[in-house]
Design a protein that fits this description.
This protein is an all-alpha fold. It is 59% helix and 3% strand. Strands 1-2-3 form a 3-stranded antiparallel beta sheet. The protein binds acetyl coenzyme *A. This is Citrate synthase.
Length: 391
């Protein structure tokens, strides 16, 4: 006989935690953020020292596998990833079937789905998935590396399709970033050097909305391509990575610095959001912003040539002096600042979000990998039922 009272008593707590602001959903050893002091540490390395001493490839390895790589380990990852980057014809066909001016994110999802469908390991039956990855880190690592490669190729194909450029095949000896730029046909060592630093700053940010979505999907034991697709969808949301597109759109609408005050006052009066401002975690300056400023100085001429920067600076000046923003601690976030570097390097805003997502995906997959070492537990939050019940 089922003891209904005991079942009910097993889960007596119902807590409404709006936006999960106080709820930890994982135990993790990857990234530590102190939003009060303004610090970030990856695997206990301060982000500043990683930024100054290493490149993204090293930091990606550190975040996923917990240590800085030696040359042999780098070569191993490069080889496996570049191999995965070669797309089957179905992936190329799917991307080229889109109109050139289509939104980037449905194109990414379509490309990733076509990749997954062509992957005999990743596309195994759901029944096999559970035994395949959980507790089997060697199998998970192979799938994880392939997933990153798939995303890089998908983004490069989209870039080439939109810009009517010829796609170039990846080379085995190159790392993720090198091959991304090669596939896109961007042969500028300065761009590669800059992104190899900038991406360190986006490599992981602990439990972001998109990382949580990856883990939520992953808790069903779905494969990493599908889990990452859930994260990509969130990454395009206006309150998350998609805010950058809207911030830029705002700067374009404003047009000149003199038109900044009425624009911001209108947002405030309507209870709207100034995109690119505010952050859930930081109550002080995001430590990544000053590191981005170092990169901006290195690319000052190209940054200055961007007319939207004058508008952005006027927005920043206004927001930094306006009580509404200062009282709420709303400052320009790191994604917005990074945008100026991307535009200085010639990328359009829709590609900026895609490329930023690529820089974040290895970090999200590090969390997915970490979740595979913990007991299987389906994520299934509770609700608080508020309507009357007849009996
Ligand atoms: N513009 C205007 N008002 C804002 C903004 C903003 N950008 N951000 C927060 N507020 C206000 C809210 O209206 C609210 O005001 P109230 O207290 O009078 O009701 C208060 O500040 C707190 O807002 P919350 O949404 O509760 O703050 P939270 O920390 O949960 O939100 C978020 C963080 C979503 C990033 C928010 O600041 C925002 O919407 N920013 C704009 C979108 C954006 O730039 N997102 C990118 C973040 S970076 C990333 O995800 C990669």
């Amino acid at each position: 006989k089922v003891d209904l009272a005991a079942l009910k008593a097993a889960h007596p707590l119902r807590v409404i935690d709006n936006g999960f602001a106080n709820t930890a959903c994982m135990e993790s050893s990857i990234t530590h953020i102190d939003g009060i002091r303004g610090t970030i540490r990856y695997r206990d390395f301060p982000i500043e020292s990683l930024f100054h001493e290493y490149i993204y490839e090293d930091v990606m390895h550190l975040i996923i596998w917990g240590h800085l790589p030696n040359q042999q380990e780098k070569d191993h990852v490069r080889e496996a990833m570049s191999k995965a980057m070669n797309p089957p014809q179905s992936v190329k066909d799917v991307i080229s079937a889109f109109p050139r001016d289509a939104e980037t994110f449905p194109m990414i999802l379509a490309g990733m789905s076509a990749f997954a469908a062509s992957d005999s390991v990743i596309c195994k039956t759901r029944h096999q998935q559970s035994a395949m990855f959980h507790g089997h880190l060697d199998v998970a690592d192979e799938a994880l590396v392939r997933t990153i490669g798939y995303l890089a190729t998908t983004i490069s194909l989209i870039y080439c399709h939109k810009n009517e450029k010829t796609w170039t095949a990846p080379e085995p000896g190159r790392n993720l970033l090198g091959n991304l730029l090669l596939m896109m046909g961007i042969a500028d060592p300065q761009v590669e050097r800059c992104l190899a630093k900038l991406w360190i700053l986006y490599a992981d940010h602990e439990m972001t909305n998109s990382t949580a979505a990856v883990l939520h999907a992953g808790s069903t034991l779905i494969d990493p391509v599908a889990a990452i697709s859930a994260g990509i969808i969130c990454g395009y949301g206006p309150l998350h990575g998609g805010a950058i597109d809207l911030a830029y759109e705002g700067f374009r609408q404003i047009g000149t610095p003199e038109r900044v005050p009425p624009f911001i006052e209108r947002i405030k009066s309507k209870g709207g959001r100034l995109f690119g401002y505010g952050h859930r975690v930081y109550k002080t300056r995001d430590p990544r912003v000053s590191l981005i400023e170092e990169l901006l100085v290195e690319h000052q001429d190209a940054v200055d040539a961007n007319p939207l920067l004058r508008v952005a600076m006027a927005v920043d000046k206004y927001a930094n002096q306006d009580a509404y923003f200062t009282e709420r601690g709303l400052k320009a976030n790191a994604d917005l600042m990074g945008c100026f570097l991307y535009t200085a390097m010639g990328f359009d805003t829709d590609m900026i979000i895609a490329i930023t997502i690529l820089s974040r995906v290895p970090g999200a997959l590090a969390h997915w990998r970490e979740s595979l070492t913990q007991p299987v537990k389906l994520w299934r939050p509770q609700q608080k039922y508020m309507a009357p019940l007849a009996n």
